[in-house]
Amino acid sequence: MKFSSSFEGSESMKDNKINKLIICLPLLGLALVTSDAQASETTLNFHSGLAQSRPEAAHIEEFARLVEEKSGGELKINVNHAGALGLREADILRTLQRGMVDMALLYGEYYTRDAPALSAVYAQGAITEPEQHLEILPVIKELYDDGFAQWDIHTVGGVVAPVFDVGLHCKEPVNTLEDLQDKKVRVWSRHLVETFDELGIAAQVIPQNDMYMALQTGVVDCAYYLSTVAKTISLQEVTEYEAYLHPWAAAPWIFGISERALGRLNDNQRQALEEAGQEVWDITRELAVDPERESEARTEREALGITVLEPFSAEDVDTFVTAAWNNWQSLAENAGEDGLRYYETVTKALSE
User: Fold this and answer.
1) Span 138-160, pLDDT tens digits
2) How far apart are CA 230 and CA 37, in angstroms?
3) Residue 31 predicted with pLDDT over 50
4) 337 CB contacts (<8 Å, ≥6 apart)?
5) DSSP character for 244?
6) What pLDDT does 141 receive?
7) Rounded to an integer, what distance in angstroms lies between the CA atom of residue 29 and that of residue 19?
8) Cβ(186)–Cβ(216) below 8 Å
9) I need a labelling partner for 118 at 20 to 30 A (CA). Which of 100, 143, 308, 331 fits?
10) Cα–Cα distance for residue pair 63/79, rounded to 1 Å
11) Left, alpha or beta for 218 (phi > 0: left; psi -120 to 50: alpha)?
């Protein structure tokens, strides 16, 4: 009897173990599936030096949303606006190359120390009609892809900047190059300083944040600036006249990912990244040229008290563009073999 009882107890214990195993197996499988899912989820840190209030920031956020959606939640982009990661723009190529950050918003003209050729891809005075910008974009994008690839950075679309009107904002009526001969002009790049210098016009680089005070105190008489957004820095308070000169050759903002970070992604994540970047590029390209937006902006500036003069003449525009191209070529030559190749590629395409 004792043996029988012991045997029955032993069998009962075995049954309990089997039942527990049966219960645990699905749970173990679920745990493994969950573990695999968690392992496949990746978050990339994205650096942007632009303030979150900038229009481009909304497009970066949309990019992040699309990546998560298209990857089925496998890939997420953590966008850090306004340089929140503490990274310097001048160092971004090195930072990405070393894998110290996964992704960044890239702007070719920022990297004159490490990659001077990138600043020679596009220059002010390159176009005289906004539509030319849309035609040349594929060429510009290809050259940026080439330049960033040399730093082990893969590009995945980006934000096509709007093509705004560029004008001269002055305290006195000015709408000819001759009128500018005795004026001091604020510009935003060395290329523009040299362009105006070739035309016998004094120009100096003054940061956007200092432009208002420079006009107010007489350091400069006129500001060469994007007319459509002039109100955002209250130029109507320190200038009274404006004349359109040419459309802005707006270099696009590029989404770049470190090859090291790219190597950690699976095929689904890579595809989501590529598709999302291209979608944002296509959307912003459609928004880039908008004559109605520019017309409404002129009307708004007049309502702010600005006298909008007749545009600079076609002859003056041709003179300015010739000087701009001359100095663009000099900039490219100083940037080395790649710089000259970029310049010749873009100018050839513009001339066709």
Assistant:
1) 999 999 999 999 999 999 999 99
2) 49
3) no
4) none
5) E
6) 97
7) 16
8) no
9) 100
10) 10
11) left
Structure tokens at 238: 């320190």
Q: What is the DSSP letter of 252?
A: P
Amino acid at 31: A
Q: What span, in angstroms and rounded, lies between the C-alpha atoms of 44 and 156?
A: 14
Q: How far apart are CA 255 and CA 46, in angstroms?
A: 9
If you search the block for the tokens 């080395």, which residue do you land on?
336
Neighbours of 73 (CB within 10 A): 12
Say which amino acid occupies 327: N
Residues in the chain: 352
Condensed to tens digits (0 to 9), the pLDDT of residues 229-281 reads 899 889 999 999 999 999 999 999 999 999 999 999 999 999 999 999 999 99
Q: Which tokens is 12 given?
A: 């009962």
Q: What is residue 202's three-state secondary structure?
A: strand
Angle, vertex CA 111, rays to CA 107 and CA 115, nearest 5? 115
What residue ranges in 275-331 does DSSP mark as E strands? Answer: 307-308
How far is CA 251 from each of CA 163, 187, 201, 312, rounded to the nearest angstrom?
A: 9, 17, 25, 23
- The residues near 168 (Cβ < 8 Å, ≥ 6 apart) are 174, 175, 180, 185, 222, 223, 224, 242, 243, 245, 312
Residue 241 in contact with residue 171, Cβ under 8 Å? Answer: yes
Cα(277)–Cα(300) distance, integer angstroms? 34
User: CA 154 to CA 158: how far, in whole Å?
Assistant: 12
Helix (H) or strand (E) holding 290: none
Rounded Cα distance between 80 and 93, Å, is: 17
pLDDT of amino acid 351: 92
283 and 155 Cβ atoms separated by less than 8 Å: no
